[in-house]
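Q: My labmate handed me this sequence with no annotations at all. I'd like to see what the chain might look like in three dimensions before we decide whether it's worth expressing. Could you predict it?
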Amino acid sequence: MNITYEPAIHFQQVNFSVDELMILKNITGSIPKGKITTLVGPSGAGKTTLLKMCNGLLSPTTGTIFIDNQPITSYEPTALRRHVSIALQAAPMIDGTVFNNLSLPRSLQGDKLSQQEAIQYLQDVGLDKSFLQRPANELSGGQRQKVSIARTLINKSSILLLDEITSALDRQSALDIEALILTLNKKYNVTIIWITHNLQQALTIGHFTWVMMDGALVETGESSLLNMPKNPRVEEFVKGVDA
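A: Here is what I predict for the chain of 243 residues:
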């Protein structure tokens, strides 16, 4: 990882275990601020566990996580989750309209979202104002993801965590989401960590890539590393995925 970039998140010898099972093993590394870092690796490598630690859904067994150079434990949990938002594959929605869903972050803060603001956030993710009063349960998978991402923007999060958000979408919807994430990264300078099983996506979307295996971080660098891995295990993994 290029150390000239200011870190948005830094992991210092982070371990996580459940009972006697080690899930994460001595993770040390920095996520560059304002860049897109993709997390790849076999199922069970610990990627989602690592992601959940970035906004306090899980805490390390040992080691320290720093968010913007401050220990993660120094953040109040609600403030941390406004600062570091997460979007999941299922894009969960509450019952009601798209506007009800967009209003949720503000209402949790005891504040209100205006319709004009909501329209602007929808436009930011490529949806027009006609979606505002549409029932959330009538949205397509791609539309749900766009609303989910718009909801994270309302928090004005500087770090966005994405867990397999395009894996259940058709090709065109996935391309739409990829283009949206690239636009948001450039427009708002949002730091993005994206778990994906699609190595081509990791190559084309990521500025940097972390490869995880068996709970360990085995190779990091610019995403082009996936074309010519230095680690033999990573080379084998990449060939296996492409086969």
